[in-house]
Amino acid sequence: MKDAELIIAVNTDAGAPIFSVADFGIVDDATDVLEAMAEAVRKRKD
């Protein structure tokens, strides 16, 4: 991750250490986030 241009963290624990280095953070279950993102992509394709 040290060479990453963008870090997006998804974790159910708002105090997770990854959030201190992430550019963007989402406090939620990763499965739920990915399902919502996939649905948004499907809708844009229509």
Describe the structure.
By secondary structure, this protein is α+β, with helices and mostly antiparallel strands. The protein has one domain. It contains 1 helix and 2 strands. It has one helix at 30-45, and strands at residues 8-11, 24-27. It has a two-stranded parallel sheet. The protein is flat and about 35 Å long. The relative contact order is 0.19. The mean pLDDT is 96.
Helix content: 25-40%
What does the main sheet amount to?
2 strands, parallel
Give the helix/strand class. Answer: alpha+beta
Mean of all residue-level pLDDT scores: 96
What is the radius of gyration?
A: 13 Å
Overall shape: it is flat
Order of helices and strands: EEH
Structural domains: how many: 1
| Straight-line distance between termini | 34 Å
Summarize the model shown.
The chain is built from 1 helix and 2 strands, in the order ββα.
Topology:
Layout: E1 8-11, E2 24-27, H1 30-45
Parallel strand pairs: 1-2
Keywords:
1 helix; 46 residues; 35% helix; alpha+beta
